[in-house]
Design brief:
The protein is mainly α. The protein is built from 2 helices and no strands. The longest helix is centred in the middle third of the chain and has 28 residues.
C-alpha cells in the first residue's frame, strides 16, 4: 500500500486551480473575439498567458 504524501495535496490543488483558470480565461477571450472587442481580447489574452505560465511552472516544480 502506498502512503499518501500530505504535502502533495496543495500542489495538486494549485495545478487544478491554474488549469481551471486557463479554461476560464480562454472562454472569456473567445467571447471577446466574438464581440470584436480588441481591448478585452488583449486583456484576457494576457490573463490567459499568465495562467498558462503558472500551470507550466506548477507542473515543472511539482507545486
Amino acid at each position: 500500500m502506498n502512503a499518501v504524501d500530505p504535502l502533495q495535496g496543495p500542489a495538486v490543488v494549485r495545478r487544478a486551480g491554474f488549469g481551471c483558470r486557463c479554461c476560464g480565461e480562454s472562454a472569456v477571450s473567445g467571447v471577446c473575439v466574438g464581440a470584436r472587442n480588441a481591448y478585452m481580447m488583449l486583456l484576457f489574452g494576457f490573463y490567459w498567458l499568465t495562467a498558462a505560465l503558472g500551470l507550466m511552472n506548477a507542473r515543472e516544480k511539482g507545486g
